[in-house]
């Protein structure tokens, strides 16, 4: 995964790759898929990865990782909107 490209697009690509692997009978445990996805994230997600991996008592699911990534992306979008709204009030 690369910086600057939307996480949604990149997780879609990841899902396509895992689907393609399944279609040729390569089976991966869901927790392995989650860890691979976390490992592929750009460096700017380093703290996110740490938060997802460490301090957990239960196994990690791919769905949990993708939901957390989507939440993080939505939060970032709202922060950008709020910041631009504040700038508009100052101008």
UniProtKB/TrEMBL annotation:
Pfam family, one: Retrotran_gag_2
Name recorded for this polypeptide: Retrovirus-related Pol polyprotein from transposon TNT 1-94
Organism whose genome encodes this protein: Vitis vinifera
Lineage: Eukaryota, Viridiplantae, Streptophyta, Embryophyta, Tracheophyta
């Amino acid at each position: 995964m690369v910086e600057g490209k939307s996480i949604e697009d990149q997780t879609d690509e990841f899902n396509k790759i895992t689907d393609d692997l399944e279609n040729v009978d390569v089976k991966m445990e869901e927790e392995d898929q989650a860890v691979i996805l976390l490992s592929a994230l750009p460096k700017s997600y380093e703290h996110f990865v740490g938060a997802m991996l460490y301090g957990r008592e239960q196994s990690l699911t791919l769905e949990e990782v993708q939901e957390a990534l989507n939440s993080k992306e939505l939060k970032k979008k709202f922060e950008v909107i709020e910041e631009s709204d504040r700038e508009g009030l100052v101008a």
